[in-house]
Amino acid sequence: MTEAPNLQRTALNLATSGVPVLPLRRGKVPFGNCPVCVGNACGGRPNMRTPGPCHCPGVCHAWAAATTDPAVITSPAWATAWRQAVCVGYHPGGASLTVVDLDDATAAAWARATLPATRTVATTRGEHWIYRGTMASRNAVRPGVDIKSTMAYARYLGPGTGTLADLPDAVRALAVKEPPAARPAAHAAVVPASVGGGECPHRTPTYLDRGVEMAVERISEARAQVHATVYRVFLAVLSRHGRCGCLTDAHITRLFTAAQAKGETLRHCTDAWTNARTTLGL
Hints:
- The structure is a single chain.
- The chain has about 280 residues and is of the alpha+beta class.
- The protein has helices at about 5-15, 70-75, 75-85, 105-115, 170, 205-220, 225-240, 250-260, 265-280, and strands at about 20-25, 85-90, 95-100, 120, 125-130, 140, 145-150, 155, 165.
- About 35% of the residues lie in helices and about 15% in strands.
- β4 (about 120) and β5 form a beta hairpin.
- The relative contact order is 0.12.
- The model is unreliable at about 180-200 (pLDDT under 50).
């Protein structure tokens, strides 16, 4: 394991160049929220787009903890985190960058045949292709390919080789979701017969929002087995709200954000959500 002073020194060097950094713990994931910040009770950090700033000195709120402030990076609370950290993470979007994370040799070969050349960094099994510019982050845009930019973090694995290129349309297109199937009007929404039939009860905003709020609380209060808790919560939400089409991207984002604040990666969240849908036959 790299010694804490070396990680901190690397983080300070990156921060000096304008790259927001954070320590990553075992599993290469962010540190979980402290008790004060559980469930974003503190109001969240400013770059999480939630009301009010977070004044917690700890490394909370996952990717949103990333900073370029040397006083924070060398603070006592962060010094403790550096001693437990295994590597340095950074927020690509905060540095106006996008990372195309290629998980294996097959994905890397696809990139070389498809994408414009840019700066590349070798990873354990594949490569990071780094472009200048930001976009929405999204996992599994194709086999072995993830996009890490805004509201995401990446491991710092060295300066890499090659010259930074501007983010091409070919990469932006990877994260464009297919338009959802047209949904019935709210007053005509019907739950499939296998679920019980009749008008969808979840169209009442208070009912649905409260259900999602309770799910977020369950994730935020998890003290152990976070992976399992996230999966069980996703399964419960989908079993109740997954068949009528009333869940929106905003609801799903709230669930994913809560899980990431507990240290889950975007990939873990996506996998848990997909597995829950598969289990329920959705």
